[in-house]
Design goal:
Blueprint (H helix, E strand, L loop, with lengths): L10 E6 L3 H10 L9 E4 L36 H7 L3 H8 L5 H13 L8 E3 L3 E7 L2 E6 L4 E9 L19 E3 L3 H5 L7 E4 L3 H12 L6 E5 L20 H4 L3 H17 L5 H7 L3 H6 L3 H19 L4 H12 L3 E13 L5 E7 L6 E5 L1 E4 L14 H7 L14 E2 L3 E3 L5 E7 L5 H4 L5 H18 L9
Parallel strand pairs: 1-2, 1-6, 2-3, 6-16, 7-13, 8-9, 8-13, 9-10
Antiparallel strand pairs: 4-5, 5-6, 10-11, 11-12, 14-15, 15-16
Helix pairs in contact: 1-4, 1-15, 2-3
């Protein structure tokens, strides 16, 4: 597919963002030969389906879920595995339980999009959207080049934005890399001592990038809890949990019951991971059944513990981390970053407040890597499209100030809490409302529901003006 101009007449559906979420929506819209909606993707990257997760080309960066669970279509669970195996049934069976390189998933999404019957009609603008104005019942998108595009409906599929370390905590000459800059992290000198701020999945990527680049220095991981993601176990057990037993409980009682389930699993010879696998399909129901105060309590006290159990890593990746720790090259520190100071030798002093201690301590490092994860607060992104939409009153922060307020099937709520008939969102920015809204099972479900709604609502395209 080559980028095309949308021309002067606009489109029916403009998808802002060409990562996994945007490509899944476009794939659904272009799958029906009878659907004549004009669709455009606005994405400045050189390739589609190369958002933060799938832009890496490093083979050590693996999917965090087995291939058998990563189909783009819930109704066809084997679709991704068949793609990987080229139709070889024996290979497909082996691949189903494997953790494959993430770059293969980006390729899969691109090829799946290209295979849709109406793919030749897709318009791809290698641009960045900077504003969306409501005009005469339509949306007028302003692009970074100054060009504009009219669209009857806009889908915000912008994906994940990296959280920034506050500039006030840093000094001007520091050597700082972003965990999502895979090539930049891999290029850090092999002998450099590194401090990674953040201990989640972005940290794991950064460590693997360092190892890929032949790094031999010491790696210190600093985060508020000092907790690292845990490993997957072999799949098995029941497909679902008795969710009704949890929905009727408050947060503290839910925690007690989940702990009881994990103890019972251990006594039965099952890995604790199976308990969380059974809970996996019910994440949104569990979140939405909590009251506002209980959700806040979860965010204050339990979210990090939930994350390391829920968002796990491939066993072979966990083995790499364990080997580094056993060699004394990797360790984790629990504390809150206070500041980064310049040292006389050109390195940095990372000053932090220990989680369970008084005063402050310092970590010495030659490089700092920001692995603090995804920024979900739109009010902390004033210079982005979200900032422009916020200024226009077209979006409202979601519950607890995270993401964008929305209702099914992704319709955005404006500053007065009213649904916008032509502005939609899916994926990362629905986190405040749905909580579980980042992974492929959620993205593919949202993409299907949203595309069905768009086809039903905008079935009759507006004829181009003469």
């Amino acid at each position: 597919m080559s980028p095309e101009s949308a021309g002067p007449h606009g489109v029916d559906v403009a998808i802002v963002g060409g990562g996994a979420a945007g490509v899944l929506v476009a794939t659904r819209l272009l799958a029906d030969p009878a659907c004549r909606l004009r669709v455009a993707i606005i994405e400045p990257a050189a390739e589609l389906a190369r958002g933060a997760a799938y832009a890496t080309q490093q083979p050590a960066h693996l999917l965090n879920v087995t291939a058998g669970r990563m189909s783009a279509f819930a109704e066809d669970p084997g679709h991704f595995v068949r793609f990987l195996s080229n139709g070889d049934a024996g290979a497909a069976e082996a691949l189903s339980s494997s953790f494959v390189p993430r770059r293969e998933y980006g390729r899969y999404l691109r090829e799946t999009l290209r295979a849709q019957p109406r793919h030749p009609a897709l318009q791809w603008l290698r641009e960045r959207a900077t504003d969306i104005e409501r005009r005469a019942g339509d949306n007028l998108l302003t692009l970074a080049s100054g060009a504009t595009l009219a669209a009857r409906a806009v889908v915000l599929a912008v994906g994940n934005a990296p959280r920034r370390i506050p500039a006030a905590r840093l000094h001007g000459d520091m050597r700082l890399a972003d965990a999502w800059d895979y090539a930049g992290v891999a290029a850090i000198p092999a002998e450099a001592d590194v401090c990674i701020v953040g201990s989640g999945l972005s940290m794991v990527d950064a460590v693997l990038s360092l190892v890929h680049g032949g790094h031999r220095g010491r790696i210190r991981v600093l985060s508020r809890h000092g907790l690292m993601p845990l490993a997957h176990a072999a799949t098995g057990g029941a497909d679902s949990a008795p969710i009704d037993a949890l929905l009727a409980l408050d947060l503290r009682e839910r925690l007690r019951l989940v702990r009881a389930w994990t103890r019972a699993a251990s006594e039965a010879g099952e890995p604790w991971q199976w308990v969380f696998d059974r809970l996996r399909p019910h994440g949104q129901a569990l979140w939405r059944s909590l009251g506002h105060a209980e959700q806040q309590r979860f965010l204050r006290h339990l979210v990090r513990h939930w994350d390391i159990h829920r968002h796990r890593i491939a066993p072979q990746v966990a083995q790499v981390l364990e080997a580094l720790r056993a060699d004394g090259r990797l360790d984790a520190v629990a504390g809150r970053l206070q500041s980064v100071e310049a040292r006389a030798d050109g390195g940095h002093g990372i000053r932090y407040r220990p989680r369970h201690g008084d005063g402050e301590e310092v970590i010495g490092a030659d490089w700092l890597i920001n692995a603090t994860g995804v920024e979900t607060h739109i009010d902390l992104q004033p210079d982005t499209l979200f900032g422009a939409l916020r200024a226009r009153g077209r979006v409202l922060p979601g519950p607890h100030g995270i993401g964008i307020a929305s209702e099914e099937p992704g319709r955005v709520l404006d500053a007065r809490g009213r649904p916008d008939p032509g502005l939609f969102v899916l994926g990362a920015m629905r986190i405040g409302t749905l909580w579980e809204s980042l992974a492929i099972p959620e993205l593919r479900g949202q993409a299907r529901a949203l595309s069905d709604h768009l086809r039903a609502t905008f079935a009759e395209p507006v004829a181009p003006t003469a």
